[in-house]
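Suppose you are handed a protein chain with no further information: no name, no annotation, nothing but its sequence. What can you learn? This example shows the usual starting point.
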Amino acid sequence: MGRLLFDPALRDRTYVFRDRAAAGRKLAALVREHVPRPFHLFAIPAGGVPVAAEIARDLALPLDLVIVRKIQLPWTTEAGFGALDPEGRALLNQDLVRRVNLSPQQIETQTAKTLAGLREREARFRQGRPYPDLAGGAALVVDDGLASGYTMRAAVRFLREKGAGRLVVAVPTALERTARELLPRVDLLVCPNLRGGLSFAVADAYENWYDVEEAEVLAILAALAPAPGGERHP
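A reasonable first move is to predict its three-dimensional structure. Written in structure tokens, the prediction is:
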């Protein structure tokens, strides 16, 4: 069972971060204090990238991406019933599938759409680079929040299979129930803004919430890339 690290002063509060960059700086301070190095830093795009970029800058680490995608319900883009990992394997929320009575055909159709989007994102963001063999090393994976947690579960499972030893998840905000369900799968979960209650939205932790476009992700990755001679861009 992993350990849960949160900030009691931020518990159950909303609009505690100005934006994803501010949330990333809060996470970076906690990671610097509580997570031993070295570790391989991953972000889940798109929203996790501006958060993780602040950790990369603070600790002078390279930023890698783990491409996982939410499988959306047929009638909304806001909610999903599972996630695909980088190899296209599905992790389904079976309770939700039963509750909303999804048919096998609906599941197949939505999964195929998600897989197509995942492959496009892999090509644009990772450009054919293979995932590293972590060989027992530590990994830290970042997103902008945990609601149902299925995309993070898919990422964690994938990174374990890639050889991650110690595995840390860092998110600015999370539904407490989801966070505690994730703990058996990780060694440490860093989440300053832990929230309970019946209603939860990741967006409610942020004063300035918006959908992160792929152009922003690519710009952040370019800014973090080593300059000629091995120096990082400022």
